[in-house]
Each structure stands twice: as structure tokens, then as C-alpha cells.
Design a protein that fits this description.
Chain lengths: 222, 347
């Protein structure tokens, strides 16, 4: 029926900017129109992602494939324990959130105590962004990266935080090493280094933001 | 005349008040409020103009009012001809007059029985309408129920359950009369829902799981995931099965021969027998006209005592007019084409 449209969308691999029609998105994820429109109303699927286009089957909306699939997977994972409003809070990086004191942060189990020492920020209050940095350092420590490598990755995150619109949907941070030089970058889609570079770690940023928000939520509740 | 009393605004002639936080705002003449206002309650019954953003608990508009910017309310009831140039955010929106919203409307529940024009999107959990709609953007709600009246236009509809009926139904009262001339229609680009049931709708695309295309529909393409039922009189250019496995057969329903003309309902029961319908009309309609006739007769009797000839004319009117109207209604109920009848008479 719609085979032409289907192959053109799934055949081109992981290229960034690839789109998926709303219809195919629903079919791939198994969600209903009711759920889709409800989530759209809640702002869980941002209006900005929609591209209306005429196809040979009539008007159809298209969404960025990776972002949309990842977002729906995330909502499906959270919807059993959180309300839609709470999910909406969890998915967005909220830079305006209150800041936390160092003592408060030490109390929270989500943060590795070794990570706090590595954070470039030396002030006594930590903003949301710093906490996200802490979360990242924790992950990279677990991956066994050296302190210098972690600092480099953390700088990349802190400088590029503004790029994380849409809750960092589809974005990851990659850390690689080439002959003793650490490379770190934010990317969407695929990130390909030359053969001399070894990839040390990749961190999914929307997952990182979600984990941080959940940790902060639990801390507020406790 | 304007009084600032305990943080309330009351304008009952013509006046201007400035924005701010108030307890209650009530305007019954032609008043103007400049700047943003916040109040527990706002009542507007004349021609009022609120020039800033409005935030309130209950908003009642019954005259011709205008809000130049956004409105945020827990409950918004518009029964006059209101115009809100910005966006509307309300828990409950009730429109029984003709209301125009320039931006978009975000509500939990909407009941439209007059006519509503919205420039942008309408979003809610439950949307019910028996009026005329013109929506420039997406109408999205979990439950959408539209009884068509006149010509409605909506760009896109999306939700869980979407029902569009060609007929007007009157739900209240023990006996209900309704006119099903089939004059209502809806024009929409696309309809997407899990359960979609349409009548008198012209659409380019309809996508859904369980789809029913009823009488008077013109659909360019139907994509269904589970089942499709089309009325034999409906025009569907193309169908496509989007579910898994082998496509189920499309069910074609015979057009329910819905009589045009007056419909009579008693309780929850729709009367189909023309003789029974006529009987109900003959029994109920005269009661109404008997009252009118009695009043006219009484006036006529009094006047005839004093004026003679003119009074007599009134008496004739009193007896003749109701009889004529009853006859007309009975003809309608029996589905005798009235217009054709009179045309034939003229020839």
C-alpha cells in the first residue's frame, strides 16, 4: 500500500534529519491516536517537531525520526509510575530550577562523592547545569575514564548546554582518545572518528537529563 | 458612573477603569478597562472592551464584549457575541452565542451550541458541539462529539473518539422535536482517531482504527487499522488497510432511510410511525397554540367591545392563525414536501 513511502524512510539508515510520518510512528511504537494527541497536547511531543507535507496519500505530518522514537519510548517507560504532567517535568532540562547547596548535594545518593571533587565549579551553590555535570562525571567514572578525560567531557557539556533544546532529544556526548589527546563532542545521529581514535564512552543526554530529574524528584520527596 | 468599591469595578453607564487586581468586575453599559486585569469574577453584559490580558475565575459574557489579549479563566461562559483576540485558557468553556477567538483555545471541556470561530488550535479533553464551527487549526481532544448545524469548517481533527452527526438532537425535555433536513455539513482536511464515526463530512483523509463513514460523506482516502464500515450512499475514493495481517472486508451498510422533515422523540424513544408522530404533534402543538389563541381571543373580545370591526379581525386572527400553523406542522410531520406543494399550488 504505502511501500514506497516506507522504504524511503527506513532504508536510509541512521542519517540525521531523517523523518518519519505520524502514521508510521504510531505503527512502529504501537501507540494509539488517542495517546499520541494526548501527549501532543501535554507538550510531551513538541509542536516544533511537526512538519506538514502533502504526499500522494494526502496531507501527512512528519516528525524527526530519532527524536520522536526516543521520546515515545521514554514516555512509555515512565507512564506507569508518573502522571503525564510529571513526565513533562522530567523530560525538560529546567535551568530555572532552584540551586542546591553543596551539603544538600552530598546528601543525595544519586551523585558519586568522587564526582563532586572533579566538578570545575568551586562555588558553594550548584545550579541545575552543575548537577547535570555531576551526573555525567558519575557515569564517566563508572566507565573508568581518567580525570583529565572527564574534565574535557564536562567542559563540552557545560559549554554546549544551550544546544540541548527539546530535553536533549536524540543528542549524545562522545568521548574519544587519540594518541593521548582527549576529544569530546555533542552529536546527533552518528559520530564517526578516524581509525586511530578510540571511543572511550558515549552518554545519551536525554537519558542523563531524565535520570537527573528523577533523582531530584526523589530527593525533594524524601 | 463608576465606583471603586472594595477592589471591585462596576460600570453601569459608560466608563473607563484601569487594570489591576480586583475582586469583581461587572460592566453592564459600555465600559472599557485598560491594562491587564485579574479578578475572581467578571461579568459583562453590555458592550465592554477589556484591553489587556484577563485572568479570572468565572467569566460571563452576555453582551458584545471584546478582550484584546489573552483570557485565562476557570469557567468561561459566552452567550452574547464575544470576541477574544488572543488565546483562551479555561477549564470549562461554554459558548451559546457567537464567539470568536483569534488565537487558540486550551480547555479541559468545551460545550458549543452557538457558533464558534477559532483562528488557531482547540485542545481539550472533551469537546462537544451542536453549533457552527470554524477552526483554523487542529481540533484535538480525547472525546469529540459534533452535531452539525449549518456549514462547519475545521482544518484538522485528532483524538481518541471522534463522532460527527449530521442531525441536530435535542436531548432535554420529555418530548423533543428536531428538524433533520440534512443541511449540516463539515469540511475538514484530515481526521485521525482510534474510533471515528462521520456523517455529512467532506475530508481529504480519514485515518483510524475503527472507522465508520456514514451518509453524506465525501472522503478522498480512508486508512483503517481494524475495521471499516461505509454507508452505501457515502463516497469514498480510496481505502487502505494499515493494520497487521489480512485486511478485513469493508462492511457496506444500507442507508438507514432516515425520513427528512421533523423528527419527534418521546423520552429516549424516536418515533418513526408518521401517524403516531402526527398524533403527538396534534396533541402537543395545540396546547401551545391554544394559549396563544386564548390570549388573542381575550384581547380581541375586549377590543371588539370598544372598537367593533378591528376587534373582530383580531378574533378571526386568533382562531385562524393557530389552525394554519397546526396544519403546516402536521403536513411537515407527514413529510409532505411543503415547498414543492406551495410551488405546485402557485402553478
Amino acid at each position: 500500500m504505502d511501500e514506497v513511502a516506507d522504504t524511503s524512510q527506513s532504508g536510509s539508515g541512521e542519517r540525521d534529519g531523517e523523518e518519519i510520518s505520524k502514521k508510521d510512528l504510531l505503527r512502529e511504537t504501537g501507540i494509539s491516536y488517542g495517546q499520541f494527541y494526548r501527549w501532543k497536547r501535554m507538550g510531551l511531543i513538541p509542536e516544533a517537531w511537526f512538519r506538514r507535507r502533502s504526499t500522494f496519500t494526502g496531507q501527512e505530518s512528519f516528525l524527526p525520526r530519532r527524536k520522536a522514537l526516543e521520546r515515545i519510548e521514554r514516555i512509555q517507560g515512565l507512564k506507569d509510575r508518573l502522571s503525564l504532567d510529571e513526565i513533562a517535568d522530567t523530560l525538560s532540562p529546567d535551568a530555572a530550577r532552584r540551586s542546591y547547596s553543596l551539603a544538600e548535594v552530598r546528601e543525595m545518593r544519586a551523585f558519586d562523592p568522587r564526582a563532586i571533587a572533579l566538578l570545575p565549579n568551586t562555588s558553594d551553590t550548584l545550579r541545575y547545569l552543575d548537577l547535570l555535570g555531576l551526573m555525567l562525571i558519575g557515569r564517566l567514572l563508572a566507565e573508568g575514564l581518567s580525570e583529565d578525560q572527564i574534565r574535557s567531557a564536562c567542559r563540552t557539556l557545560l559549554h554546549r548546554f544551550d544546544e540541548l533544546d527539546d530535553g536533549g532529544a536524540g543528542k549524545s556526548l562522545i568521548v574519544g582518545a587519540n594518541d593521548g589527546v582527549t576529544i569530546s563532542a555533542l552529536y546527533t545521529g552518528a559520530c564517526l572518528f578516524d581509525s586511530d581514535t578510540t571511543v572511550l564512552a558515549t552518554v545519551n543526554l536525554s537519558k542523563l537529563i531524565e535520570d537527573l530529574n528523577l533523582a531530584l524528584r526523589d530527593a525533594e520527596a524524601a | 458612573m463608576e465606583t471603586h468599591d472594595l477592589g471591585s469595578i462596576k460600570i453601569s453607564g459608560s466608563g473607563t477603569a484601569s487594570g489591576g487586581v480586583y475582586d469583581e468586575i461587572s460592566i453592564s453599559g459600555s465600559g472599557k478597562v485598560t491594562g491587564d486585569v485579574e479578578a475572581k469574577q467578571i461579568g459583562v453584559s453590555g458592550s465592554a472592551r477589556l484591553e489587556g490580558n484577563v485572568k479570572t475565575g468565572v467569566m460571563r459574557g452576555s453582551g458584545s464584549f471584546e478582550i484584546a489579549r489573552d483570557l485565562e479563566a476557570t469557567e468561561c461562559k459566552c452567550s452574547g457575541s464575544g470576541r477574544i483576540k488572543g488565546n483562551v485558557k479555561a477549564d470549562v468553556l461554554k459558548v451559546s452565542g457567537s464567539t470568536e477567538i483569534g488565537g487558540s483555545a486550551k480547555v479541559r471541556e468545551a460545550h458549543i451550541s452557538g457558533s464558534a470561530t477559532v483562528g488557531g488550535d482547540v485542545e481539550g479533553e472533551c469537546f462537544r458541539s451542536s453549533g457552527r464551527l470554524k477552526i483554523g487549526g487542529l481540533l484535538s481532544a480525547d472525546k469529540i462529539e459534533i452535531s452539525l448545524c449549518g456549514h462547519s469548517q475545521i482544518r484538522e481533527i485528532g483524538g481518541e473518539t471522534i463522532t460527527v452527526r449530521a442531525r441536530q438532537t435535542t436531548d432535554d425535555g420529555w418530548i423533543g422535536f428536531s428538524w433533520s433536513g440534512g443541511s449540516g455539513s463539515l469540511e475538514v482536511e484530515s481526521v485521525e482517531g482510534d474510533d471515528v464515526c462521520l456523517e455529512a463530512t467532506t475530508a481529504k483523509v480519514v485515518r483510524g482504527q475503527r472507522v465508520k463513514i456514514g451518509q453524506g460523506c465525501h472522503i478522498g482516502r480512508v486508512e483503517y487499522g481494524e475495521s471499516l464500515e461505509t454507508d452505501e450512499s457515502a463516497q469514498v475514493d480510496e481505502t487502505s488497510f494499515t493494520g497487521e495481517g489480512t485486511p478485513p472486508a469493508v462492511t457496506i451498510v444500507k442507508s438507514e432511510n432516515r425520513p427528512r422533515g421533523w423528527q419527534v422523540r418521546m423520552g429516549d424513544h424516536e418515533l418513526h410511525n408518521p401517524v403516531l408522530k402526527a398524533l403527538v404533534v396534534v396533541l402537543t402543538v395545540p396546547v401551545v397554540f391554544a394559549v396563544i389563541a386564548f390570549v388573542l381571543l381575550a384581547v380581541g373580545a375586549v377590543v371588539s367591545l370598544t372598537l367593533g370591526g378591528v376587534g373582530l379581525l383580531l378574533v378571526v386572527l386568533a382562531l385562524g392563525l393557530p389552525l394554519l400553523i397546526v396544519a403546516a406542522v402536521v403536513l411537515k410531520v407527514l413529510s409532505i414536501p411543503f415547498r414543492g406543494f406551495s410551488r405546485r399550488l402557485r402553478r
